[in-house]
Specification:
With 484 residues, the chain is mainly alpha-helical. Strands 1-2 form a two-stranded antiparallel sheet. Helix 13 crosses helix 19. It is globular, with a radius of gyration of 28 Å. The two termini are 37 Å apart. The relative contact order is 0.14.
Length: 484
């Protein structure tokens, strides 16, 4: 089902300026937040969500924080709840993932991202992943397809796609029979090459260990010192006070135990496929309007943002979870979960993020304003903005009456099919990426782990979460003391 939209018009303000972002919030609150006047004071009946990218959301919350000395929730601009939209956040996650997998110095190492781009002479794959997002995403998805097919062939013990044979009973069966067979096959393959569930569980276990940190007691009889938080502190105390020396570890044994038994080329392929499927899951969740799945993607990307040092979006992800789990009422949390996408044309699987839709409208309006030439001013720009939806409706009606159909969706090019065949041969035959062989390694990706969250410092993550939790809890306590 498609939607009916109402254009909000233009506000000639600069959200980078504190006074302007406050004016923007005041205008939106006056226009769209339901209120009632009681004792000459406006009271908020229901909060309305105000979406944008991370910078807009942060500026809005800072503006609200600057008005915390107001007499009522309305004066404090609490009729609006700033929220982060998905498209900008997922683009940032895409940029971080490309940074992990793409290194120019790997151009000569068969099977790597940059080698694939060089081999197929694809300049788009080497562009900036954030500013040229749609150009980089196309070759990236192609490479993910190559890795998936290569892993599947390796799992089935085959050398080329033509060797794949579907059992005759399955080929002759109905859709349910074919689906059950396919899902059973894919499930086992995913469990071998994509271990994201286990990786998330590992982070959760480490987090619990940090929260429930064990204590170490002095092993000397009748010693009143301790308990000690760290094992090393206990050992130092025993050596200093009781002349107890820790037995030396068997160096030879530790060397033999630490002998490298990993295949880092295999790890690279598994990591590439895992991250690629993670991004595809995020895209599919948006297309289907699956709110809970979108929120799960925010949870996964939170750890990636934190690991890769993107503090702003890590905080944005954590704040979204805080809104859903504690700050908002169950009703408002439900609204925040499900009201994240828009369907512009109707039909299943055709939804887009709210901020992506707004970016498209901004592009249409920008093009319309260019045609005003010397007549461009605040008055004419406001008229263009207010008429934008009506203009789009008129154009849609005329093109429909004239039978003009605009191509929709993505059409695969023949060049992409040729590139796929070429890259599959490189990855599966020449590189044998998913054929586990101990000791292999890319020079550009030394000791790379297949664990998406490898290198994440769980201890500092816990302290960081506690810090923000206390800050937001204090803000909520202050708001709860204010009469609406």
């Amino acid at each position: 089902m498609s939607i009916n939209m109402v254009m909000g018009g233009l506000l000639f303000k600069n959200e980078n300026l504190s006074e302007d972002i406050i004016d923007i919030l005041k205008t939106l609150q006056d226009r769209y937040v339901p209120t009632i006047e009681c004792d000459n004071t406006k009271r908020v009946l229901e909060q309305v969500f105000f979406g944008g990218d991370q910078l807009t959301e942060e500026r809005a919350r800072n503006a609200q924080r600057s008005l915390m000395d107001g007499d009522s929730l309305f004066d404090m601009l609490q009729g609006l709840v700033p929220k982060n939209e998905d498209w900008h956040a997922f683009r940032i996650a895409f940029e971080k993932i490309i940074k992990l997998l793409r290194k120019p110095e790997s151009a000569g190492e068969t099977g790597t991202y940059f080698c694939n781009a060089t081999l197929t002479n694809n300049s788009n794959a080497k562009k900036d992943a954030l500013n040229e997002y749609r150009f980089v995403r196309e070759p990236f998805n192609l490479y993910v397809d190559v890795y998936i097919v290569s892993a599947t062939l390796n799992y089935l013990g085959l050398s080329k796609i033509e060797d794949v044979q579907v059992p005759q009973t399955v080929a002759d069966g109905n859709l349910l029979t074919q689906r059950i067979w396919l899902h059973g096959l894919v499930r086992k393959m995913v469990q071998k090459y994509v271990t994201l569930t286990e990786q998330v569980s590992d982070v959760q276990d480490k987090f619990q260990e940090v929260i429930q940190r064990p204590v170490f007691l002095c092993r000397a009889e009748n010693c009143e010192h301790g308990p000690f938080v760290y094992k090393k502190a206990r050992d130092n105390h025993e050596a200093r006070k009781h002349s107890y020396i820790q037995p030396a570890e068997n160096v030879e044994s530790s060397k033999s135990d630490s002998k490298d038994s990993d295949d880092y080329i295999f790890n690279y392929g598994c990591l590439f496929m895992t991250l690629g499927l993670l991004l595809r899951n995020a895209d599919d969740a948006v297309k289907e309007g699956d709110g809970p799945r979108i929120i799960n993607m925010w949870r996964a990307f939170l750890l990636i943002y934190r690991k890769e040092g993107n503090t702003k979006y890590a905080v944005a992800s954590l704040h979204l979870i805080a809104l859903l789990k504690g700050i908002l009422s169950p009703r408002d949390a439900h609204r925040l979960t499900w009201n994240r996408t828009v369907n512009r044309r109707g039909g299943k699987g055709k939804r887009v993020s709210n901020d992506f839709h707004l970016e498209n409208l901004n592009l249409v309006l920008t093009n319309a304003l260019k045609h005003l030439g010397v007549n461009l001013n605040e008055s004419t720009a406001a008229r263009e903005a207010n008429a934008l939806q009506y203009t789009k409706d008129i154009v849609t009606t005329f093109t429909g009456d004239l039978g003009i159909k605009k191509p929709k969706g993505y059409h695969k090019k023949l060049a992409s099919e040729k590139d796929f065949i070429t890259l599959l041969s490189e990855v599966h035959i020449k590189c044998q990426m998913f054929s586990f062989q101990i000791g292999r390694e890319f020079r550009s990706f030394p000791k790379i782990s297949r664990n998406v969250f490898s290198g994440l410092k769980v201890g500092s993550l816990k302290d960081w979460i506690v810090k923000w939790k206390k800050r937001w809890a204090e803000e909520q306590r202050l708001l709860n003391t204010v009469k609406n």
